[in-house]
Amino acid sequence: MTSFFSNKESLPPNSGDPFNDSNLHIENDDTTSYENNTIPSYKDLQNTYEQRWLQKKQKFQTELKNNFFALTERFATGKQEIFSLSVPDRRENLYKQAFLELFESGYAPHIGDAERLAGKKVRRLYITLPYDFTS
Question: Which residues contact 121 (CB under 8 A, 6 or more apart)?
Fold first, then answer.
């Protein structure tokens, strides 16, 4: 019966015992760093994730507000791009909802089709501003 490694030169060093410590690739013993930690409850972990999302949502909506006021300061009218959204697919719906809840229907918030920009999938977020009849 022949071994998988038929040539002794192709064997890794110290390969006589497949379960010796040099073959297990454990250089840093990270088990001690988790030794005293406990696994949080599902509800606690869910709350942690929710808080993380709420922070990101607040930052995103603040950026949308900044862009909105930049448009109104220059008296922009009609359909205006307010943001280019480039996030992972799994989070896209969260950001869309955060955008739509920020602008009431009078602004006609809408989301453009997906496009490729610099190799990334991007969706442009638009609002419609009223026309300025004074100028």
Answer: 86, 89, 114, 115
- Residue holding tokens 């229907």? 105
Nearest-Å Rg of the Cα atoms of the chain is 27
| CA 86 to centroid of chain Cα atoms | 9
**Is residue 37 situated within a structural domain?**
no
Q: Is the pTM of this model over 0.90?
A: no
Digit-coded pLDDT (tens) for 45-102: 999 999 999 999 999 999 999 999 999 999 999 999 999 999 998 999 999 999 999 9
Domain membership of residue 104 as a residue range: 42-129
**Is 82 part of a structural domain of the chain?**
yes
Domain count within the chain:
1
CA-to-CA distance for 46 and 54, rounded, in angstroms? 12
Q: Tell me whether residue 35 is in a domain.
A: no
